[in-house]
Structures are given as structure tokens and as C-alpha cells.
Amino acid sequence: MIGRVRELGSQGSPTISRQRFGTTKSGTSVDEYHLSSGRGVSASIITYGGIIRAISVPDRHGNSADIVLGFDSLAQYETRHPYFGTITGRYANRIARGSFELDGTRHTLATNNPPNHLHGGHEGFDRAVWSARTESRADSVALVLSHLSPDGDQGYPGAVAVEVTYTVSALNTLRIDYVATSDKATPINLTSHSYFNLAGHDSGDVLRQKVQIFADQYVPVDATLIPTGALLPVAGTAFDFRQPRMIGARISEVAPGYDHTFVLQELAGLKRAAVAWDPGSGRALEVVTSEPGVQFYTGNFLDGSQAGKGGALYQRYAGFCLETQHFPDSVNQPSFPSTILRPGDVYRQSTLLKFGIHDYDS
Ligand code: GLA
Questions:
Q1: Could you confirm whether domain 3-357 is CATH 2.70.98.10?
Q2: Is residue 118 in contact with ligand 1, taking CB distance under 6 Å?
Q3: pLDDT in tens, 283-339
Q4: N or C: which terminus of the chain has fewer CB atoms within 10 Å of its end residue's CB?
Q5: 147, 193, 201, 260: which is the annotated catalytic residue?
Q6: What is the pLDDT of residue 89?
Q7: In what order do the strands lie in the sheet with 210-213?
Q8: How far is CA 74 from CA 11, 18, 79, 290, 345, in A?
Q9: Atom 7 (ligand 1): residue with closest C-alpha?
């Protein structure tokens, strides 16, 4: 039964509410929405960066904890931070040397993670204030965020209209649907950048939490974290998470930690990407996605330098990310699945996070 997530109990209906979160330095008002399943799980999302600021999940005894890293104030999110919970775009992860050629034209992007471009540049989707509307149905509530990125934004061609919908259901799922269109051909690769710690955001490192990733191959990278272009088998290596393993079991072999894309066994369609759980509390997370890859990142660059929620100091390995996305630097890697969106086409991706209890190996 390894890898199964048991349903949380209780009866109730989903609810959504809004409160003021703060005002940006440039005077824009930011709201926080609270989406509750009515059955144990809830998520708090702010319109700045579309950031998931908190996710509350009960343990096997019914005690809730906030399982994502983040901050208490808007001012902290406005400083440079490790993309805690952000919508990441236009292009999640790296583009080599901030340069790519498309239809015969070379485009130059900011090298904000020298020598490379990272997560959309200096002012990516993670720093935009998104417009919001809500939807309520009998068995789910949704927050629909939209943003218009102008032609030339951060060096990217085309005006891109993007909509990200967060839906919390009575099945204790948080679904993220991404839709985008562009008036010129342009690369796009969106993800959600939550750092999970299933024992609680302030509980120390995640090295004893377990992860299973449904990938036979991973994407090896160079010293600047750009793919070499190869796909390598995980079999017998520190990247072999086909069976559940403690995150820390072989992490020392991949110093400073995991920061790699795993190639999902099925590239197309909605399928399981990963399962993770904390043997101590029983809290479990299952990730289902339409994307071909998942970036498994173990918070290698966290250094406790910014006070998190409640003053928590997030040190290296304080959280792990399972960022469902296309492969890094696909714009410069002809053999990787394409990330180019053309006018008239619609970019659509979905990722579903299912929360529950896993108590087969407590
Ligand atoms: C992603 C990258 C990491 C790092 C973090 C943000 O997960 O793969 O290398 O840049 O984002 O700190």
C-alpha cells in the first residue's frame, strides 16, 4: 500500500473569504483569500505574486499545521526571496545566459541568476499584483487570478494574458489550472513554487520525510544548473525515487542537494508525478500533473537569513519543492518538449495537490 493517501474525515462544505493583506511600496492594495475544503484542508493565497502563503493540513490525530514556508508580511514578500509559494513565470527555472533564438530572432533576457536567466527575470509573475475573482460551487471554491504581461516584458516577445485558477475541493485537493495566450510566438513555462515541510513549516529539515517520484529518467545539469541536453536513467543512482525513499538517504551524493528535473513516466495527460509524506505526523501530499516534468528542489539555498512566518528561520533543507513544469532551458534544447506558445494557440496546464494521511509506516 506504499504511496497511497488516505482520505481525511469530517463533513463540511468548501468556503472562500477575503481580507486585506497590505499595500505594496508603490501603493497597490493586496488581498488574501482563504479557501477551505470544509474537511480539514485550507489554503491562503495573496494577490501579490499569486503566492500560496499557507496550507493547513491535519495530522493523523487531527492536529493542523501550516506545511508551506512563507512570510507574515507583504513587505517581506516584496524583498528578494526564494520564490516562497509564488506563481513563477514567464519561464520557470533557467534559460542559459538569458538568450534564445525564436523564428530567426535572438532575444535577450536579464541574467538575474548569473550567468543565467531564472524564473522570468527581475520582475517576474512572482512580483505582479494579480486581479482576482472568486467562484463557489457545491463541492469546491475557486480563486481566479489574471495578469496581463505586456509585449517586451522582461525581454520576452508578445503580450501574454495569463489566468491561474486555484480550486479547493471537498476532497481536500488544491488544483492549479494555468491558461495563457499570446499575440506573438513566445516561450512560456509556468509553475507553483511552494516549499513543503509536511511536519510543519517551522519544524526543521525535511531529510526524514519520504518522497516517491514517478520518473525513470532525470535531466542532468552543468555547474550553473543548465541541462547538458542528455536524459539519464535514475536506476541505481541517488535520483532513484521510483520506490519511496527518505529525502536525505542519498542527498550527500548530490551536494548541495536535489535541484533537478525528473522526466515523468507518462509525458502527456494528467498523471501522478510524486507522492510525499512525513512518517512522524502522517501528513501526505500527492502531486498529479499534465506537465512532462517535475523539478525536485530541496531548499539547498535556504540559509535562515530572512525571518519566516512566526519568526521561523528556514535553514538549508527546511522545505522541498515539487515544481511541475517543462524542462529548464527548453528554448535552447531542441530535443526537449517545446515551450513555445504561438498566437491563436492556448497554453493549458494543470496540477493537482491532494492532501491526506499516510500511516502505513508511522
Ligand atoms: C528553483 C531552482 C533553484 C532555485 C529556486 C529558487 O527551484 O531550481 O535552483 O533557484 O528555484 O531559489
A1: yes
A2: yes
A3: 999 999 999 999 999 999 999 999 999 999 999 999 999 999 999 999 999 999 999
A4: N
A5: 193
A6: 97
A7: 131-136, 140-149, 160-169, 173-182, 347-357, 283-289, 271-277, 210-213, 245-246
A8: 34, 16, 9, 31, 35
A9: 297
Query: Could you tell me the sign of the dihedral formed by the alpha carbons of 209, 210, 215, 221, in that order?
Result: positive
Report pLDDT for 1. Answer: 39
**Distance, CA 5 to ligand 1 centroid (Å)?**
28
String of DSSP letters for 214-267: -EEEEE-B-TTS-B-S--EE-TTSTT--SS-EETTSSGGGGTT--EEEEEESS-
Measured in Å, residue 17 CA sits from the centre of ligand 1 at: 31
Q: 32, 286, 291, 323: which is the annotated catalytic residue?
A: 323
For the entire predicted model, the pTM comes to 0.97
293 Cβ closer than 6 Å to some ligand 1 atom: no
Answer whether 299's CB lies under 8 Å from 318's CB: yes
CA neighbor of 219 nearest in space, from 263, 162, 267: 263
Does the annotation mark 122 as catalytic?
A: no
Among 291, 50, 15, residue whose Cα is nearest residue 164: 50
Catalytic site residue 260?
no
Q: What is the pLDDT of residues 4-41, one digit of tens each?
A: 667 776 678 999 999 999 999 999 999 999 999 999 99
